[in-house]
Design a protein that fits this description.
By secondary structure, the protein is an alpha+beta fold. The protein has eight helices and four strands, in the order ααααααββββαα. It folds into two domains: 79 residues, no CATH class; 122 residues, Nuclear Transport Factor 2, Chain: A (Roll), CATH 3.10.450. The protein has a four-stranded antiparallel sheet with strand order 1-2-3-4, covered by helices on one side. β3 and β4 form a beta hairpin.
Length: 227
């Protein structure tokens, strides 16, 4: 089969062991094959196909299964888009006092890295189980401007996203990860073995560019590890 990697057969065999819930069935297909195996009708369990398409409402629309599975990459793209849209966002509300405590914990480290006093503009703040992710920007105190030449490892000519991962401990909020001037979204390049051991809700709404959010990729990673 043209373009099929040598290890594809092993992944297909691993997948053919069966699947339980709809989510487990899908993720075994998505993660074991990773959209690279042009598997056929015989290799891809018919039961799982029926489960997915019945659940997603495609069976009611009388969409043929066979044309969709001829090309694995197209099938994966459609399945990912449809399933990801149905996965609920899991996050928790953060109280105003907790929010202020978090910003107070971030600001000193951000100012140190920036080499000057800063304020924090929050674009996204997700919180779950004493973990938080903040996405935003550093802005100057009122009446002043930021001199990015004073900052550590910041190019004045590039975009500058603020990315913070923090954990609330007995002593208060502790900054675990911070980038004050990332030219691209940090959540595009998360390392699953590190980032996805945290509560997935802190990545809600952060689009990775793969038709999913970082939260959904985190849920998939955690589901795979539980098997």
């Amino acid at each position: 089969m043209a373009g099929r990697p040598a290890s594809c057969g092993k992944r297909v065999e691993a997948f053919k062991g069966g699947c339980g819930t709809i989510f487990e069935c899908f993720w075994r297909y998505a993660l074991v094959n990773q959209g690279r195996c042009a598997i056929n009708n015989e290799a891809f369990p018919r039961l799982c196909i029926r489960m997915h398409f019945a659940w997603l409402g495609l069976k009611a629309l009388k969409i043929s299964i066979r044309p969709l599975i001829r090309n694995c990459s197209h099938t994966m793209q459609r399945l990912l888009t449809l399933l990801f849209a149905l996965i609920p966002t899991v996050t928790q509300a953060i109280t105003p006092s907790e929010r202020q405590d978090l910003l107070n914990a971030i600001r000193p480290e951000a100012s140190r890295l920036a080499g000057q006093a800063v304020r924090i503009k929050v674009d996204t703040l997700n919180y779950q189980n004493n973990w938080a992710v903040l996405v935003g920007q550093l802005v100057p105190p009122q009446g002043k401007t930021l001199d990015w030449r004073k900052a550590q490892d910041c190019d004045p000519n590039l975009d500058k996203m603020l990315w913070v991962v923090a954990q609330k401990q007995a002593s208060g909020w502790q900054v675990q990860e911070i980038f004050i001037c990332s030219p691209e979204p940090v959540y595009w390049y998360l390392v699953p073995e590190e980032a996805f051991v945290r509560p997935c809700g802190i990545y809600a709404g952060l689009q990775t560019g793969q038709g999913a959010t970082a939260q959904q990729e985190c849920l998939a990673f955690q589901a795979k590890r539980r098997r």
